[in-house]
Amino acid sequence: DSSDDIEDVSLFDADDDVSRRSKKSKIRHPVASFFHLFFRVSAIAVYLLCELLTSSFIACMVTIILLLSCDFWAVKNVTGRLMVGLRWWNQVDDDGRSHWVFEARKVSAQRSKTSSEAESRIFWLGLITCPVIWVIFAFSALFSFKVKWLAVVVMGVVLQGANLYGYVRCKVGSRKNLTSMATSYLGKQFLRQVRFPGFWKPS
Question: Which residues cross the membrane (predicted)?
């Protein structure tokens, strides 16, 4: 849209602040935001209500697995790229070796036009909360001896946990970067303690 390329200059800083806040809170991809939550919430709802709706375990299992598969594909290939500018995938090089690639969109002036804080909150809330719920279901099925449901619940943990792991890797970088950041932080804390030994002692 050509209107997105036009930037109005306000005469007052207050107007600029209001404009920036409205852009941050605006959901720019409502369809992607809807389907980011629709498939995973629907899978949880079917799992909770399936025994009330039907007595067929096979129908419930197939429905839940289909919803989880649609969620995995949508989150991995569509909603992550549109809502937060992250993506991950696996590629095979010419030697036949498999490589996992984790990418994040570079911060630039164009970022404000493609994502917003509201979408980011929706994305991470759904991405983190739903796998935690499936883990709770897994323990519940295990301790209540619902063996037939355990395979379905494990499928939910694996598929949604894989997306969570992939996007966390995209967000924070590779494991090597995490290790170097932690080492650097601990080194700074150690030097600070050496310089000011009394700072860390309890009063």
Answer: 30-49, 55-75, 122-143, 149-168
CA distance 26 to 10: 19
Place of tokens 């809330």: 125
Strand partners, 87: 103
Residue extents of the structural domains in the chain: 30-106+121-192
Q: What is the mean pLDDT of each run of 10 residues along the chain (203 residues)?
A: 42 42 69 94 94 87 96 94 89 82 71 70 95 95 88 94 93 59 55 54 46
Point out which residues pair with 102 in neighbouring strands.
Answer: 88
Amino acid found at 192: R
With contact defined as beta carbons under 8 Å apart, do 151 and 111 qualify? no
Residue 20 DSSP SS3: helix
Query: What are the CA-CA distances from residue 97 to residues 32, 165, 175 (Å)?
Result: 33, 21, 19
DSSP notation for 148-195: HHHHHHHHHHHHHHHHHHHHHHHHH--HHHHHHHHHHHHHHHHHHHHH
Exposure b/e, 158-183, CB count within 10 A at least 16 = b: ebbbebbebbbbbeeeeeeeeeeeee
Would you tell me the crossing angle of helices 30-53 and 117-143 to the nearest 10 degrees?
A: 20
